[in-house]
């Protein structure tokens, strides 16, 4: 996506609106933005894999059956890592089913999503597809119905170059070089009663540390992610993290966070302010991590892998979509195919801002999911692929948030919400580019009713006002969506910037996502 510079001259008057002020100071740094922050998630769920990334009969399919139109959009989205193969699916998955000749692979019942898994796509196929995207593979091991030995077998198969039975099996299956997977998830949402193999924090902590130690004996280069709470509303939230870390602190590198938001009961104001809840969630997890660190007198720092986050209308799934018939186990059913609005995209933008504001401790994240299932990319079997509204803020952040996140000093008008109390109407963060030659400002107006001007105060920086630019995602109808019939109804548009000395002013309409790029004179 490109935008044209429609910057207005300083002599033009600013409309009489409320104003927020963001002070940008490169000396006030949060930390470097880890590229893994822009990861995604592919689970064997619904049409994410089959009819999503993989559709052999599609007109754009390559010789491996992968859709080229989807691959092109994944490149544009800018995904850097992908968590695979689940999710709830992994807690009943036998990885061996997905390797070897396809004609010999078994069909299995997937209890997580009440579907039939054909195993036509497994580790080899997915890794080959992922290499075409340039993204890093992040693998989850099954700690629901399996344990230490099965995890070790998968690590050996994936990472040992040669000389063992399992590495030779990989070679015989067509992969001479190891997959060299560095990031490993120790199970998935093991605090959740819905999870196959659900355990208490004590039980899971004991298992996780055992598996972690074994994997490190095999491959000391790995980075391990232990399960945190499935969401901040879990009854065990906080105590779960503390207990698990008391077991596994010395053996893992990350603890996971998962969260989904949805608009409930027509309360748009509370929904738009979901980022404030994510801020609190992250800060509470960091406090728990550091409390355990202090109690252990450890020099080791554990960070957060926020490896599931998005807008998901889960209530709709629970009430309408769940398959339960014992005789109905469909292949790749249409599940969780939420159609996203402008309001949903603004919430996603706000969540990205929250992740960037905590870039010192959130160093990996995965938007769940990538294609069709609560996803930024949608496809139709035999037909087109298109961008949902949520595609645009993620692509913006992945493309431009490269460098150092700067601690926001923001003063903003406020408004009231039922769920979050009084919140700032504007949320924003700035990133200084890697070369120090530009400032990128990301902002959302989460007030459902009022337009607000954002003043970006650059202080001692020297903006190149002639080449500064801005674009926004907005529609008069906050529930406007991109659909199969109207795939480009909502797209980003260039918007005006006004400069007054070293202050840039941009109008933020109600319910909008805005990106401002200001080159600096060095």
Summarize the structure.
The chain has 11 helices and 26 strands. The chain has 522 residues and is of the alpha/beta class. The strands form 6 sheets. An 8-stranded parallel beta barrel has the order 3-4-7-8-9-10-11-12, surrounded by 6 helices. Strands 2-15-19-20-26-22-23 form a 7-stranded antiparallel sheet, covered by helices on one side. It has a 5-stranded mixed sheet with strand order 16-1-21-25-24, with no helix packed on it.
Helix content: 25-40%
Strand order of the largest sheet: 3-4-7-8-9-10-11-12
What is the radius of gyration?
Answer: 23 Å
Dominant shape = globular
Structural class: alpha/beta
Q: Provide the low-confidence segments as ranges.
A: 1-15
Q: What is the average of the pLDDT values?
A: 95
What is the tally of beta strands?
Answer: 26
Number of helices in the DSSP assignment: 11
**Main sheet makeup:** 8 strands, parallel, barrel
How far from one another are the termini?
27 Å
Beta content comes to 15-25%
């Amino acid at each position: 996506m490109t935008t044209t510079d429609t910057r207005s001259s300083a002599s033009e008057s600013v409309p009489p609106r409320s104003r927020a002020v963001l002070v940008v100071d490169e000396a006030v740094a949060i930390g470097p933005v880890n590229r893994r922050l822009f990861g995604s998630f592919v689970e064997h769920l619904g049409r994410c894999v089959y009819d999503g990334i993989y559709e052999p009969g599609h007109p754009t399919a390559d010789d491996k059956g992968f859709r080229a139109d989807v691959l092109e959009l994944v490149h544009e989205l800018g995904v850097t890592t992908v968590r695979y193969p689940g999710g709830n699916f992994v807690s009943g998955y036998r990885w061996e089913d997905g390797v070897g000749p396809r004609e010999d692979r078994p069909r299995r019942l997937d209890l997580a999503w009440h579907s039939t898994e054909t195993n036509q796509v497994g580790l080899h196929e997915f890794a080959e597809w992922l290499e075409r995207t340039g993204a890093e593979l992040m693998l989850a091991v099954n700690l629901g119905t399996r344990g230490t030995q099965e995890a070790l077998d998968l690590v050996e198969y994936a990472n040992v170059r040669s000389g063992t039975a399992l590495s030779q099996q990989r070679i015989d299956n067509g992969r001479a070089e190891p997959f060299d997977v560095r990031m490993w998830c120790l199970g998935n949402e093991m605090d959740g009663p819905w999870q196959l193999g659900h355990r208490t924090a004590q039980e899971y902590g004991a298992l996780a540390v055992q598996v972690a130690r074994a994997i490190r004996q095999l491959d000391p280069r790995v980075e391990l992610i232990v399960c945190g709470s499935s969401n901040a509303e879990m009854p065990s939230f906080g105590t779960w993290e503390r207990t698990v870390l008391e077991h596994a602190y010395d053996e893992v590198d990350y603890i996971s966070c998962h969260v989904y938001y949805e608009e409930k009961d027509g309360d748009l104001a509370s929904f738009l302010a979901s980022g404030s809840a994510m801020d609190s969630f992250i800060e509470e997890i960091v406090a728990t991590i550091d409390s355990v660190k202090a109690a252990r007198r450890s020099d080791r720092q554990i960070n957060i892998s926020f490896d599931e986050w998005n807008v998901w209308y889960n209530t709709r799934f629970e009430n309408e979509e769940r398959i339960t018939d014992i005789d109905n186990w469909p292949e790749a059913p249409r599940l969780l195919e939420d159609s996203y609005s402008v309001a949903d995209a603004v919430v996603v933008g706000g969540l990205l801002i929250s992740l960037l504001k905590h870039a010192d401790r959130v160093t990996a994240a995965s938007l769940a999911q990538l294609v069709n299932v609560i996803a930024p990319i949608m496809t139709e079997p035999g037909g087109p692929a298109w961008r949902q509204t949520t595609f645009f803020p993620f692509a913006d952040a992945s493309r431009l948030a490269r460098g150092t996140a700067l601690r926001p000093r923001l003063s903003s008008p406020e408004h009231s919400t039922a769920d979050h109390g009084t919140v700032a109407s504007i949320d924003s963060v700035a990133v200084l580019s890697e070369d120090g030659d530009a400032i990128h400002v990301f902002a959302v107006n989460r007030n459902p009713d009022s337009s607000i001007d954002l003043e970006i105060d650059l202080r001692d920086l020297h903006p190149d006002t002639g080449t500064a630019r801005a674009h926004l995602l907005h529609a008069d109808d906050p529930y406007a969506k991109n659909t199969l019939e109207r795939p480009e109804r909502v797209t980003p548009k260039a918007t005006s910037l006004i400069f007054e000395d070293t202050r840039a002013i941009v109008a933020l309409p109600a319910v909008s996502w805005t990106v401002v790029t200001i080159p600096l004179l060095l």
